[in-house]
Write a structure and sequence with these properties.
Oligomer: single chain
Number of strands: 0
Helix content: over 70%
């Protein structure tokens, strides 16, 4: 019995590399975000105040984000990492909606989540088979 990925035909070697690039870009952005939470520069303090969160939560949130990113970047746990980061980013969307931020500020975490998943799907043949469009 052949795997579902085998039924998809030949896959360009560029597809997994494009996935790695998308994954790296999304992960680097999230690492920057997490480090900013830990360092608490003035813009982070202002953002926490605007969102109504105590600044004392910033370091814990940053460490949690870094842990989720670590789970995402290891191939064996990348799906779990994507799920955890999707939940984290969903919380960011809810926070922006709650305070009435602009459409871009509200949708930006969704864009990052989409990049995480797109990168993962492109670099994992099993996920490509799972999400393949069937005719």
């Amino acid at each position: 019995m052949q795997s579902a990925a085998a039924h998809m035909g030949p896959v360009s070697k560029k597809i997994p590399w494009n996935g790695r690039i998308l994954s790296i870009l999304a992960a680097l952005f999230l690492v920057l975000d997490a480090v900013m939470h830990v360092m608490k520069p003035t813009p982070v303090v202002a953002a926490f105040a605007q969102l109504g969160y105590p600044i004392g939560l910033a370091v814990g949130i940053g460490i949690l984000e870094l842990a989720c990113i670590a789970v995402y970047v290891f191939p064996g746990t990348s799906v779990l990492g994507a799920i955890l980061l999707t939940g984290y980013l969903g919380g960011a969307v809810a926070s922006h909606l709650r305070v009435g931020h602009s459409l871009f500020e509200t949708v930006f975490p969704i864009i990052i989540a989409a990049l995480l998943w797109a990168g993962l799907v492109l670099r994992d043949a099993r996920l490509r088979a799972l999400f393949a469009v069937r005719t």
